[in-house]
Amino acid sequence: MAKLIHRTQEWEVKAGITIRDVILKxxxxxxxxxAVRDGQLIxxxxxxxxxxxxxxxxxxxxx
Amino acid sequence: MKCRKxxxxxxxxxxxxxxxxxxxxYLEWFPQQVERTIGKYKMFTRDDKVLVAVSGxxxxxxxxxxxxxxxxxxxxxxxxxxxxxGFGYSDLSLEKIKEFMTTxxxxxxxxxxxxxxxxxxxxxxxxxxxRGRGKPCAVCGLIKRYVxxxxxxxxxxxxxxxxxxxxxxxxxxxxxxxxxxxxxxxRQAPVLEEVDGLARKxxxxxxxxxxxxxxxxxVKGIDYIYEECPHAVGxxxxxxxxxxxxxxxxxxxAKLQFYITFLKAxxxxxxxxATEQVILHACENCGQPxxxxxxxxxxxxWRPAQNQVEPDAQDQSS
Lengths: 63, 318
Hints:
The structure holds 2 protein chains of 2 kinds. Chain A is mainly β.
């Protein structure tokens, strides 16, 4: 299992599905977040792997 | 998903462009897009002195970073509004800017602290004035526009650049369209020309998505303030952005299309320009341009003893 973090919320997610699908399952919009793993930006077609810790960063923020 | 240019793993897939890029090629692509926008709308040249309004957020820091790397004469302006929100929002924003400057030798930052200059923070004056009741954004906007214009004109900047991105532009466009605010629609543009002491204003990021700008900041290692302004939570602008992102999810490129076709419609004269010429006067207190004779709206915000003419502080990274 992998962990997905967005703000103060955390989810456990199964490995093997894409970041995009994981984002959609949480109710978030892939157009409104970016996924970061180990401090690196990853694209939404990347598949989640076991033990991943993925942070979702809101792109809407003060500029 | 692989980078279209080199085949390495892509960090970002931009569905609106049908383009995925790795970190290296994204860091080349992004500044090229900014340069194209500057050229397309004739915003400024390398001979111009550009004042960049920086807040510590991703848009303004990314913009300043790109302009410095593209060898534009770009100095920053930070306006300390004194917003706390329970976590020192304004102080944290300034920390991010200072951190940014440690890696940009020679970068110059102008700072105006509203509380020091005028005796109250933006939040305090907003709470006191009718204009700011319930939501301080109107007062905040007034203060920022005034200070940006004043610093630009007093320091002989040719142009003022802000980090408004395409998501900002289409959110405003949607709001103005829903309410048929034709006057505002006629005025919305990538470039606002100089008028009688009001500085020329440009938006070099206006064709870039907020997501793309955030990606640039993350890949480039620019640490920015992630937290929203505490006063922006639940704002109408953010609701419009949510709606537009839902549209974008189903129709990649929809946001850009909305903006570009709006600009084309404006070019074709769809929005009648305001026929009434606005006459600007010099404020009797500060000398800045204002639409009505007497004291300008900015000076009227402050208690009489605090209407000071304050020089700005300058920081230069070594």
